[in-house]
Amino acid sequence: MSAPLAVSLGDPAGVGPELIAEAWLRRGEAGLAPFCVVGGATVLIHAAGSRGVELDVRQVRSLAEAGEAFGAALPVIDFEHDCPPSLGSPSREGARLALHSLTRATSLALSGEASGVVTGPIAKSKLAAEGFTQPGQTEFLADACGLPHEDAVMMLAGPSLRTVPLTVHEPLAAVPGLITRALIEHKARIVARALARDFGLPDPRIAVTGLNPHAGEDGRMGREDIAVIAPAIAALRAEGLSITGPHPADALFAARERNRYDVALCMYHDQALIPIKTLDFDQGVNVTLGLPIVRTSPDHGTAFAIAGKGLASAGAMIAALRMAGECAGRRTASEAG
Fold first, then answer.
1. What residues have CB less than 8 Å from 188, skipping those under 6 apart?
2. What CATH number labels 5-147+292-336?
3. What is the assigned CATH class of domain 153-276?
């Protein structure tokens, strides 16, 4: 049996704490593996109260204790790390708690005390004042694992679709110059290994989008598709990967097309995120592939404007916790076998 998951609180002024609380309350019906939150006991209780529910929390000093407590109360480690509730109003004190929670949850996963880490949504601008220098939590996890940022691959996963953006937070004008054969091949290999290891897909089918409309239409709408993307796909296919493309992105996400692949490798941020958020907005999970630890996160932000108003859906948080537990279980079974 896998160890409990470590959950970072996210920004305590956002929707993360209330959704973590609701996920624990729905743990049975959702089939969630045991998890433990790092810090913020007062924040969690107050956030749950804003949704009209009473939350039982229990202080634990180890993840082993968390597993024992999970059925009766929400386990919280590092109980002394807390801050006054301030739903919708981010503060420096809250940012400090968020950074501690993220750092400690990651270290628990790296040490093996936790089977994986599920990260609540953060406000990066607030964390910057506390020494958070990475572009996002994905890069933070890569640094913590001692890996270059390009080895930590972001995948968005929902019930209908999985997508991977080849380039992430880059200006659209810069994307064509960033797309290289080496980048496509490197990320596709990481995706294939991770889907086999963590998702039980020994020969995952990867569909690669084109960069230009109609995948360039034989060079008439841009040559990147035939000069860069197609040769990379050919090289990967020669290695034995089940990979196809470049496919016109405007047709690849139709229902009948989605049955033909397990993941779509997309050229840029919106090409990957628009379809997943259209199809699976309330159940989308951000998964970091390529790490020595399991990491998932709900695919939404802090949503300060609706924090504490009972409007935020817990679907993505529940999906992130469920997926992390399933991936951790596969790793544990593989190592035992």
1. 206, 208, 232, 236, 241, 243, 265
2. 3.40.718.10
3. alpha beta
What digits encode the pLDDT tens for the residues 135-192?
899 999 999 999 999 999 999 999 999 999 999 989 999 999 999 999 999 999 999 9
Task: Kindly tell me the sign of the dihedral angle through the C-alpha atoms of 135, 136, 138, 143.
Answer: positive
pLDDT in tens, 286-331: 999 999 999 999 999 999 999 999 999 999 999 999 999 999 999 9
Q: How buried is 28 (Cβ within 10 angstroms: 0-12 exposed, 13-18 middle, 19+ buried)?
A: exposed
- Domain range summary for the chain, segments of one domain joined by +: 5-147+292-336, 153-276
Residue 119 host element (H or E): strand 117-119
| pTM, full prediction | 0.94
187, 265 in Cβ contact below 8 A? Answer: yes
Distance CA 1, CA 64 (A): 12
The amino acid at 104: R
**Same fold flag, 5-147+292-336 and 153-276:** yes
